[in-house]
Amino acid sequence: MSTKFTFKGGIHPPQSKSLTENVPIEEAPAPDIVVIPLSQHIGAPCDPLVAVGDSVKVGQKIGESKAFVSVPVHASVSGTVKKIEERYVPGGAKVNSIIIESDGKLEVHESVKPKGNLEDLTKEDILSIIKEAGMAGMGGATFPTHVKLSPPEDKPIDTLLVNGAECEPYLTTDHRVMVEKPELVVLGTKAIMKALGVNKAYICIEDNKPDAIERLRKETENEEGIEVAPMVTKYPQGDEKRIIHAVTGRVVPSGGLPMEVGCVVDNVGTVATIGNVIKTGMPCIQRVVTVTGSAVENPKNLYLRIGTSFRDAIEMCGGYKEEPGKIINGGPMMGIAQHTDEVPVIKGTSGILVLNREEAKVPEDSNCILCGRCVDACPVYLMPFKISRFSKLKNFDGADEYHATDCIECGSCSYVCPARIPLKERISVAKKEILTRRKKAK
Amino acid sequence: MEIKLIGSSSPHIRGDETTQTLMLDVIIALIPALAASIFYFGFNAAVLILAAVISAVVTEYLCQRFMNRPITITDLSAVVTGILLAFNLPAQAPWWIAVIGSAFAIAIVKQIFGGIGFNFLNPALAGRAFLMASWSSHMTGGMVDPVTDAVSSATPLAIIKGTASGQLPSIWDMFIGNVPGVIGETSSILLLIGGIYLIYRGTIKWIIPVFYIGTVAIIALITDASTLPYHILGGGLILGAFFMATDYATSPVTNKGKVIVAVGAGILTMLIRKIGGYPEGVSYSILLMNILTPMIDKYVRPRVFGVATGGKKK
After folding, report:
1. B5 touches chain A (CB under 8 A)
2. What is the pTM of this model?
3. Is the minimum CB–CB distance between A261 and chain B shorter than 8 Å?
4. Minimal Cα–Cα distance from B201 to chain A, Å?
């Protein structure tokens, strides 16, 4: 392996990936009921296109919005619309959702057709295919992909970074996709390159996945402009600004977006799904989810239908091994703890992590000893202990002065804190408060 | 199955280090020098160390009890303060000196300001300064010469300064600890081993010890090169540079800040030794830099990623 890219700061938590990293992706059975939230992305929520009692088929568009920053949602099973009502989603909010009872036939909708050769598709075709397929960032941020791929004229893009770092412990979805579906990753990469009009793309992979690096190197051997970029295994290597800095040396300005330095970063799962959309025409109705953790009987990488409940997904892995303490949507560093296992898998669900009660205990915090570990760990070079202290004292001006809003909420500070202070949580509080005040001031 | 789930903000996993493990590391690092001090100075050194540690822990417990604060004696920070305070005492000092010094360090310097992390002076050094001011005869006399067992106050640096008369010990004796001095400042080699252990473990960074000792060395070389080994190995510099000046609460959190206090302490130490009234000067220079630390932390900050840098760097 040649040069490895990395950043300054960060942490090395135990990877805990051995539970599933060598477990091939398994096609999950369709559940009896799916819950399709009408908003699984950042942006305007969809309006339902179906009514209670309607029959739907797999891949049929069932929700859409006229807004630009929005993506449609599709039925992931065939069957009957039972209800349209508010349901809890993994983000914590209640969202209007379409509940479909499966007829078990998985009949595919007539609109689902392969999109033909990439060579024959124009830039506009690709963008419209991506939007119509309901693509939103599947790494967890769920930003509508076509919006990211339509930068304003004054922000020329020259580089695409495909993010296969997967630096979160436990998660192996991106890893398995890269090992098992490298051709879809490459097809998706080429499609996005064409949509953006760039001729340079890097597929960025942490060096704890040598098999993925090797597979993609082989797959891209004869591809002009696509390069595999091995990265040092370190958290949060997969943060988009870290990746851009590590691979291209460019610094995204504070508060800015990657496009300001000519880059677009897309999660490798999103890219592979776009490859699949072009190849088969099937919109985003399924995704790979790592179901793992000490309280899961048989941890697996499942290819789940969107709308499958966490409970069903865990049942497909043999159920709970012991009493669960925490159920997390995503990984242990940035994932969101759920209050119930009855939330649906959505486009941004990269993992379902079930910790046992012992692991889930929230540690008690004590005095900050000013050891400076949080300062060394912060990948943005903040002083987390200061912001945290300001936040606790409700001195949000102080927190603002120390750049609380630049926090990427990676949690590295809380992880290393020997006094177990919930630094990230307090910084998040300050960040929200400062942003709300700024909005009000406008 | 009805399940009760625990909710909390991310991250959902935490590292292994706690305040307690960090303090335990410091204690482990001090053990070789501690054992050597008992070997060289005998039973009374053991009594002083024990008295200082017990006093520190009991004082911490009583203060927290009294102030209705959580009892945190298990974090071992009071034990560290006790050992370091005892290391600053001459071997023949009476036991109550250790008890009072520790109690002052914990109650006045640490707990009154809010406990661990809130003290603005190194508790052990402030305790030493308090004892020096109050019972200077007990603090400067009573140095035991491990070779002759005679009590003297003629430390090597005092001889160099001319405030005491006597034969300078060999550098080798200074290195292994076979010289008169306070309990903990004697065996440079064992303190160095402890310090390197702490750096290896990541408990402390190399910056402060290296810049502090380096500054002292450079000034000694420029002024009178023949005294170099005595300035490095004597006067508690190794103890101070590795174990006192690196105290988390009283040293800056940033690397740049650490360089500033280390160089500052080095200059002050040599000023005190060369021009000032004391032959040693390590503890006062560290205390003075302690006072500057909050200001350094206010003005020396890391440059936030992407702030004041525009667009493409390449």
Report:
1. yes
2. 0.91
3. yes
4. 13
Q: Which residues of A touch B307 (CB under 8 A)?
A: 253-254, 403, 406
A348-396 pLDDT per residue, tens: 999 999 999 999 999 999 999 999 999 999 999 999 999 999 999 999 9
Would an 8 Å CB–CB cutoff place B117 in contact with chain A? yes
- Which CATH number is correct for A118-280, 3.40.50.10990, 3.40.50.300, 3.40.640.10, 3.40.50.11540? 3.40.50.11540
pLDDT band of residue B309 (cuts 50, 70, 90) is very low
d(CA B211, CA B301): 19
Nearest to B11 among A340, A411, A418 (CB): A411
Question: Domain residue spans in chain A?
Answer: 118-280, 373-441
Residue ranges of domains in chain B, CATH in brackets:
19-295 (1.10.3430)
Q: Which residue has the higher pLDDT, B74 or B172?
A: B74
Cβ separation B254–A375 shorter than 8 A:
yes
Quick: pLDDT tens for B179-221. Answer: 777 888 778 889 999 999 999 999 999 999 999 999 999 999 9
| pLDDT of amino acid B313 | 34
Confidence tier at B42 by pLDDT (50, 70, 90):
confident
Phi, psi of A5 (to 5 degrees): -90, 150
Shortest Cα distance, chain B CAs vs residue A30, angstroms: 22
Complex confidence, ipTM: 0.89
Confidence of residue B264 (pLDDT cuts 50, 70, 90): very high
Give residue B314's pLDDT band: very low, low, confident or very high (50, 70, 90): very low
Length of chain A: 442
Report pLDDT for A404. Answer: 95
**Residue A358 touches partner B, C-beta closer than 8 Å:** no
Q: Cβ of A387 under 8 Å from any chain B Cβ? A: no
Spans of chain A, pLDDT less than 50? 1
Residues in chain A with CB shorter than 8 Å from the CB of B309 are: 251, 253
Is A419 close to B19, i.e. CB distance below 8 A? yes
Range 232-291 of B in CB contact (< 8 A) with A: 248-249, 253-254
